Amino acid sequence: MSEVSIYHNPRCSKSRQTLALLEDKGIKPQVIEYLKEPLTAEDIQGLLRKLGFVSARELMRSKEEAYKELNLKDEEDESKLIEAMLSHPKLIERPIVVKGSKARLGRPPEAVEEIL
């Protein structure tokens, strides 16, 4: 198993760019297509810790239709935010690169270099 993993959506240009950046550096990450391999609440909580995020909202894509449909803008209950991401994985910001106890969002892709 690779020591680097990427939570990846192949349809996302930033995700593809981040994966290419890793591969250009000779890194063969474990690719987790989170839209096909559903995450658990524990997975999301672990990612939040590794990213250093205080709230699950920081990991959410607020421009997704589900964000508006579920009226998440004013939701303060962290468990409900996580539940929404579990039910609608497109709400999860991507890509996320993890190495050991650290993680970074690949927005921009170069941001992941600080943990490599």
UniProtKB/TrEMBL annotation:
UniProt xrefs under SUPFAM superfamilies: Thioredoxin-like (SSF52833)
Catalytic activity annotation: [glutaredoxin]-dithiol + arsenate + glutathione + H(+) = glutathionyl-S-S-[glutaredoxin] + arsenite + H2O
InterPro entries per UniProt: Arsenate_reductase, Arsenate_reductase-like, Thioredoxin-like_sf
Enzyme nomenclature, EC number: 1.20.4.1
Record flagged with keyword Oxidoreductase: yes
CDD domains: ArsC_ArsC
GO molecular function: arsenate reductase (glutaredoxin) activity
PROSITE patterns per UniProt: ARSC (PS51353)
Record family assignment: Belongs to the ArsC family.
NCBIfam families (alphabetical): arsC
Name under which the protein is recorded: Arsenate reductase
Native source organism of the sequence: Pseudidiomarina terrestris
